Amino acid sequence: MDVFVIEGGRKLSGSLRVNGSKNAALPLLAATLLTDQPVTLRDVPELSDIRNMLRLLGELGVEVERDGTSVKLQAVDETEVHARYDIVRTMRASICVLGPVLARRGSARVSMPGGCAIGQRPVDLHLRGLEALGATIELDGGDIIARVPKSGRLIGDTVFLGGPFGSTVLGTANVMSAATLAQGTTVIECAACEPEIVDLADMLNAMGAKISGAGSPRVTIEGVESLGGVDHTIIPDRIEAGTYMCAAAATGSTIELTNCPLDAMMSAVDRLEAVGVHIDPTDHPRGVTPDQPLRRTCTISAPDQLRPVQITTQPHPGFPTDLQAQFMAMMCLASGNSVITEKIFPERFLHVAELVRMGAQVHRHGTTAVISGVNGLTGAPVMASDLRASACLVIAGMAAQGTTIVNRVYHIDRGYEKLEERLSSIGASITRMTEDQLSEQGLASTGG
Ligand code: UD1
Fold this sequence. Notes:
Elements: E1 2-7, E2 13-17, H1 22-31, E3 39-42, H2 48-59, E4 62-67, E5 70-75, E6 82-83, H3 85-88, H4 98-105, E7 107-111, H5 124-132, E8 136-140, E9 143-147, E10 158-160, H6 169-179, E11 185-189, H7 195-206, E12 210-212, E13 218-222, E14 230-233, H8 238-250, E15 254-260, H9 266-275, E16 278-281, E17 296-301, E18 310-312, H10 324-331, E19 337-341, H11 350-357, E20 361-365, E21 368-372, E22 381-383, H12 387-399, E23 403-407, H13 410-415, H14 419-424, E24 429-434, H15 435-440
Parallel strand pairs: 2-15, 3-14, 6-7, 10-11, 18-19, 22-23
Antiparallel strand pairs: 1-23, 1-24, 3-5, 4-5, 7-9, 8-9, 11-13, 12-13, 15-17, 16-17, 19-21, 20-21
Helix pairs in contact: 1-2, 1-7, 4-6, 5-6, 6-7, 8-10, 8-12, 10-12, 11-12
């Protein structure tokens, strides 16, 4: 397994282009199963989650041709309907294929995703939504088996997708995708409003779907007989952008981001500004509406001293749970007590114990963490437990004095393309090593 060796205490300076969004790309890739026509996706990031999705699509009869960040896909064999456990267990987002396969091929068998490090992650809302469209659902041998009604097509209806933690992003993607080919009109109430849902609706509409209201809690989908091909460029990754902003803030640096989806990041920008960080778009003067609000160029400048803040994670446009851990790393260095309340994934605090190993003062009480700012962090061997927790530890390592070794960076490779190279290109010192190389250098990978 690879590790990152981080020499902390370096300032960053320079420019990074934000890559295409992983969380937009996964349901967009799955949506290619809705047509037998060619689909081209552009700005597809080079990530292990994307590779897994392409492998799954290959097993489902889709021909995949990758050329840099462009991927051409075409479903050439539409007989296979089984998404097997050995792929699904590597990536929960495999559940995205359920709606498209069911709607287009009449039945789908998708292994039930298990829990993960950030807690129990049910799919009951996905299933409830598809059942409302007339699908029959049963469980067999750990697989979800879904079938369309006898008429051969799903049937549009009103579907409520709210659960105890608000709506569901991939559940909305699944039901919205399936409903494009249903007979009649589907209304999703309490739909997820995330920008990734808007991107999916934009692509589906360009393929011939009739979706309105995406980005609001009520999405209306008029079913059509079939969908055609498309050439679509994926929106930039707001979580990657937010991670770089936190890295700049925690290291007292000024950096530039291009292709930055600022318009989709207002809650994160609001909290960063409360911390004292300046975020200045440099492509248009203030007051001028940009023609591409999701592709801005901006400068991120850290203040001399970070101020403490309160953050509560919420569904979009609230503060994203996927940036909670990275913000916590930054807030460890603020001048006072910050409070984070996690309202999407109540157990998503595995990074706390690792930050404490680096000298942070964080106390968790249920779904709330109180972070008492310290003057500095110290490098330590730490263990990454999930994708965003790993990014948090990389930020902490860059801000700390001394050497930090982040273990299990395969989590990072799921969602950040060449993170060590990109951050090193703007001044960080992050080296990827195998565990063997690490011991050859006389460095220990674990603390205990
Ligand atoms: C997506 C993102 C993930 C992000 C999350 C919340 C992708 C590939 N992943 O995951 O990075 O952290 O949104 O913004 O886009 N829930 C239910 N029943 C369901 C489905 C969800 O109770 O059927 C609950 C979940 O346990 C969680 C909340 O609803 O508490 C939100 O989860 P959801 O929006 O579904 O997350 P994902 O779409 O899986």
